[in-house]
Design brief:
Elements lengths: L1 E7 L4 E7 L4 E5 L5 H11 L2 E6 L5 H4 L2 H8 L3 E4 L9 H4 L16 E3 L3 E5 L2 E7 L8 E5 L4 E5 L2 E2 L2 E2 L9 H12 L7 E4 L5 E2 H7 L7
Parallel strand pairs: 3-4, 4-5, 5-6, 10-13
Antiparallel strand pairs: 1-2, 2-3, 7-8, 8-9, 9-10, 11-12, 13-14
Helix pairs in contact: 1-3
Length: 210
């Protein structure tokens, strides 16, 4: 499996394009610049299968419909935020001067932690709320990589001062779900550089004293 980190939009949200040896592709959090994401996928000569959303804040969903319609693929989102795609007051776009963002309903609703198969991809879904109530992380065990959305960053954690955020819940999510992964696991966050579980266990100031 290979993946490409693509910072997009004014908040430099990390969209990820993931593909495998079967030339199948997944897109995680297409937040903005849909044409850029689509063009990159087309250069890979792969078949997109789905869009996976770690959560539904506006900077992570801005290009959902453009990418979905370009490839005619379904969207996966957690049940706690399924109505956020259509509601600017919940996805937060109404509070930022970047334009109101809406997307159509998702085709697949994640209702609990599970392991799913999409094409030849095997994905473990962890519920990691705190930054937002429907935040999830997508773990590819065979590849040793987790896409953590805005739960865990290099040297930091997701903000919890937005509506529906919960600091203690986020810390519990990180410790119980993410830090329980093998230390060599790569962490692909929603913003900023890639890190590892080991690095965050050793030096993340939000976690070392917990």
């Amino acid at each position: 499996m290979k993946w490409k980190q693509m910072p997009v939009g004014p908040l430099q949200e990390n969209t990820y394009v993931i593909w495998n040896d079967a030339n199948q592709c997944l897109i995680v959090d297409p937040g903005s610049e849909g044409s850029k994401i689509i063009q990159y996928i087309e250069t890979l000569n792969v078949t997109p299968l789905a869009i996976l959303l770690t959560h539904a804040h506006f900077d992570h969903i801005g290009a959902v419909d453009e990418v979905r319609e370009a490839f005619n693929i379904p969207v996966y989102i957690h049940a706690n935020e399924e109505d956020w795609l259509e509601d600017p007051s919940k996805n937060g776009s109404i509070r930022f001067p970047l334009g109101v963002i809406k997307a159509k309903k998702a085709e697949h609703i994640i209702k609990n932690e599970s392991q799913i198969e999409i094409g030849e991809f095997s994905i473990e879904i962890f519920e990691t709320p705190g930054h937002s109530p429907g935040s999830v992380s997508f773990y590819f065990a065979n590849e040793g990589v987790v896409f953590s959305g805005d739960a865990l960053f290099q040297g930091s954690i997701g903000r919890t001062d937005l509506p529906f955020g919960n600091y203690e819940q986020l810390l519990n999510s990180i410790h119980q779900k993410l830090l329980s992964l093998p230390e060599e696991t790569e962490v692909c966050p929603g913003h900023g550089p890639v890190t590892s579980i080991e690095a965050e266990m050793d030096s993340n100031p939000f976690l070392t004293g917990f």
